[in-house]
Write a structure and sequence with these properties.
By secondary structure, the chain is α+β, with helices and mostly antiparallel strands. Helix content is about 25%, strand content about 30%. A hairpin with a 4-residue loop joins strand 6 and strand 7. The longest helix is centred in the last third of the chain and has 25 residues, at about 225-250. The radius of gyration is 24 Å and the shape is globular.
């Protein structure tokens, strides 16, 4: 004999599934590997659309390349705070491998955005609460368009990894390019060459879910992630079960016994 769950039990099961979907870790996390350097210095942070939530690392010696590994949900953002010595050259060079999907993106890919704070020295280069708060405030100002670059904007790519004056940087593909923001007194055609002040300090960012076809996934018309679709489906299921349960509760006793 085949037995089926009553509407009440089915509703309870759907509620348990929904609770599981809302718990941390339900949305799949991607394994990310980063190899990068900045002339002259940088700090790497993780966060979301509206701010930085954790500090990964920093470096002030551009001839060295650092590699970081971490797991991020598809709703996460990577932030790179940068500053130059305003002498000879400046640039951000990096390779970012999504080990979960096999997708590799570089510092010059169009998914990246940049903004200028115009605050000069003392960029947030640590994981202190003060630095996280300062960076998050600047991120929110940029989201609202209230900063020297008038929000998040594009950048300009210079030479490939291996170009002068830097030479070849280890652990980064030759396809990667040095990039910088063409603001301030920088050369708009190639702001990586010649010492300049682009309105530093600068912040580069990219969404983990971004692709060349969808560089800004946090738009109103974005396609929901699988977890969002699952939540919507469970919500509809629970509503349907609730209506069915109510209908049976209101049915005549003779009908219930049939």
């Amino acid at each position: 004999m085949t037995r089926t769950l009553s509407p009440r039990l089915a509703l309870s099961a759907a509620a348990l599934l929904l609770a599981g979907a809302l718990t941390p870790g339900f949305a799949q996390a991607d394994a990310i590997r980063v190899s990068m350097t900045v002339d002259n210095s940088y700090a790497l942070f993780l966060g979301d659309l509206n701010g930085a939530t954790s500090f990964v690392g920093s470096d002030g010696n551009w001839p060295t390349v650092e590699t970081y590994n971490f797991n991020l949900s598809k709703s996460a953002y990577i932030y790179v705070v940068t500053a130059s010595d305003r002498s000879v050259a400046q640039g951000f060079l990096g390779q970012f491998d999504n080990l979960s999907t096999g997708y590799t993106f570089y510092s010059q890919d169009p998914q990246w955005q940049v903004m200028a704070t115009g605050l000069g020295l003392n960029a947030p280069y640590s994981g202190s609460s003060a630095d996280l708060a300062l960076l998050s405030q600047e991120i929110q100002d940029a989201n609202a368009g209230g900063n020297p670059s008038q929000g998040w904007t594009g950048f300009t790519a210079g030479g490939n990894n291996g170009s002068s004056p830097w030479g070849s940087m280890a652990n980064i593909d030759a396809a990667a390019k040095w990039v910088w923001y063409g603001g301030g007194n920088c050369d708009r055609s190639n702001p990586t060459q010649g010492g300049c002040d682009a309105g530093e300090w600068l912040v580069f960012r990219i969404a983990v879910a971004a692709t060349p076809d969808n560089p800004n996934p946090d738009t109103p018309n974005r396609v929901p992630e699988p977890s969002s679709l699952a939540l919507g489906g469970l919500g509809l299921l629970m509503a349907a079960m609730a209506r069915r349960s109510k209908a049976q509760d209101q049915a005549p006793a003779s009908r219930l016994k049939a």
